[in-house]
Amino acid sequence: MMNIVILDDDPIAIEDCRKILTEYAAENDMDLSVTAYQKEDQLLDQAEDIQPDVAILDIRMGEESHDGIQTGTLINKRWPACCVIYLTDYITYASDVYRTKHSYFVLKDQLSDRVGELFGLVQKYKEELLQKQTVSKGIFTSGRKKISFYPGEILYFERSLRTTKMVTSSGDYTLQEKIGELEEQVRDMFPGSTFCRCHNSYLINIEAVTAMHSSSFTMQDGAAIPISRKYMQQAREAFMTGISTC
Question: At what angle do helices 11-27 and 111-133 cross, to 10 degrees?
Answer without folding.
Answer: 70
